[in-house]
Amino acid sequence: MYFRQWFLHSLVIITFASVVGCNSADPEPFDQPTSGSETGEESGASASSVNRAITRAGLKPAATDMLMQYYSDDPDTLNVLTSNDTTSLAFQRQVYQGLADQAFDDPDTWEPVLAESWTFDEESLTYDFKLRKGVYWHPMTLPNGVKLPRTEFTAADVKFTFDCILNENIEAASMRSYYTNPNAKDSTEKYKIKLTVLDKYRFKLTWSEPYMLVNEFTLAVPIMPRHVYGVDEKGEPVSLDYRNSPEFAKLFNDHWANTRMCGTGPMIFDKWEQEQQVTLSRNPDYWGSPYYFNQVMYRNISNPNTALQQLLQNELDWAGIPQKDHYMQHKEHESVTSGRVKLMEYEYPGYRYMGYNQKRALFKDKNVRLAISHAVPVDDIIDKIYFKLATRLTGPFLPGSSACDDSLAPIPYDLDRAKQLLDEAGWKDSNDNGTRDKLVDGQRVEAVFDLMIFSDSPQFRQIAEIIRENCRRIGLEVKITPTKWALMLQKLRKKEFDATILGWALNWKSDPFQIWHGSQADLPESSNAIGYSNPELDKLIDTLRTTMDPAKQKALYHQIHKIIYDDQPYTFLFMEKRTAGRHARLDNINFYKIRPCVDSREWSAAEPRILSQ
Prior knowledge:
With about 625 residues, this protein is an alpha+beta fold. It has 18 helices and 25 strands. Helix 11 runs antiparallel to helix 13 and helix 17 runs antiparallel to helix 18.
């Protein structure tokens, strides 16, 4: 179940690494026809081809073995449509499933999951699905102790899920926005999709207009059980109008099952002891390849350093190590040198940037933004602060994906070029006070700006100090403003900042509209916090969003990338590698380009975990 890791947060702000088991946390491609998208040919694997006796790695599952991970904070809810945090996503990943999954090893293709096969007609924009038969929902008990009957997954559950998303009273606004038609003339045109159930195992879903991410927003949606979320705590329905009823929406938002999970995946929710642990157990009734471990436990550990110590003491199987200096220091720890713990570093699809508020006089000229980019020694930052555990990038798209123009070179560190650009932009030190200035609308403006950073990140503070010193050398004054996260979000939403250091998570394929479209520049709550607007770029984004042809998409992406690169509304810094440690007993750990970058369905263990260790 990977829909939410891409799109529920559609774009996730990265501050510093947070973890649930593995470090994880948003938009994306199909570069070649998949699911019969051009030919109308049927796509998918036969249910009979799944070997239920062996794992995805081709191994017999363990009779008894518990995988130990950790999480930092309890989520508000476990409801897969209304939760909006990476912790709940980690718990849900092996419980809930969608119609198909993006393949880890080939992100341009889709693997059938709850859909056995499907076709997609590009002219009518219609999917025709055949669902797997014999797939059953996990057992569920009502609050009064009554067990719900064993229930098969059907097309009614798919319709129920999409109806819930489209119910405007259900707390799934970020997801619903992708299906909303902003140009609707009446209520019949309000949403871009229409779902028709044909029989128990077949349905059609039609989009009213082309959209570049139709696969992602059709195939990857996590399906919810109607027989659970459609009834109250006594097992009675409040309303059968799931799409429109406010009464049903209230039941759904505050549902009795929101502290549990009921899916179709390889692991079954066992229990959640708040501030203690969450446990899952292997699903004996699973339709697909079984999970290797018969149990998974997530311990609640609020401090990542505590989690690291528990890993080193063999009390955890996996823990992220967000602080790079801690990661490097522990390479010499006895548990590591003895081979009991393996340290790991791997590419993660997310990037850091310094963004400039376009409403500020200093940042309206792209030459000023480019000058600052030339004054930031990114390579030195990578070497000295991140111990070479990061790589440079040139724009907002994932390097190696079809969206990214890999021919563009990183902006070089060049203080002389930076000074020349500032001179050309008219920013000069007219009063010999060491800081450049310029006459703007009849008033002399000093080249001074606040740089807002996340106060709890020591790395961001180090980066900011390097930027301040180098800006001083080219005649700009930088004032560093460490800010708590809640206040930082508030200032971003209200555009009450000059410049900021932040990050975005990336998907293999993304819709640039939220961050880069000019229509979002003046909206107080938009992801375009810097207020960037470029009419030429807007036209390209509008065209991209309705382009279905992969080759044309690629060309448009590259044009978008080049415009953003030339304009430098962000100084694009680097992609930080994730650093973590694992118990040496874990085998078959592979790393991938798409989040969460590992697939625990492939994992196994050389020896079972002894909980008394």
